[in-house]
Amino acid sequence: MAVDDYSTRVVVLVVVTSLALALFGGVGAVLGGSCVRVSATRVLIGGWISMAVTYGLLKPLDSFTDRKMGKDD
């Protein structure tokens, strides 16, 4: 909501989410007693894959949602 441009909003969302994924992967590694770099990387890459799949599956519904909400391009 703080960013008006759609493309910028997506980039900001990906960057903030990536930082959070790496942070929580590292915290989980510390708590679990494993290698922080490997765990943070694994969680980060898994999160990227998850975001890409979700974006790819939901992107075709944008035009349907825009029509239903009365938005025309």
TrEMBL record:
Main location as per UniProt: membrane
Catalysed reaction equations from the record: Fe(2+)(in) = Fe(2+)(out)
Regions crossing the membrane: 12-33, 39-58
One of the record's GO cellular component terms: vacuolar membrane
A GO term, aspect molecular function: manganese ion transmembrane transporter activity
GO biological processes: intracellular manganese ion homeostasis
InterPro entries named among the record's database cross-references: Ccc1_fam (IPR008217)
Compartmental location: Vacuole membrane
Organism superkingdom: Eukaryota
Pfam families: VIT1 (PF01988)
Membrane topology: Multi-pass membrane protein
Keywords, in A-Z order: Ion transport, Iron, Iron transport, Membrane, Transmembrane, Transmembrane helix, Transport, Vacuole
Family recorded in the similarity comment: Belongs to the CCC1 family.
Descriptive protein name: Vacuolar iron transporter
Source species of the chain: Helianthus annuus
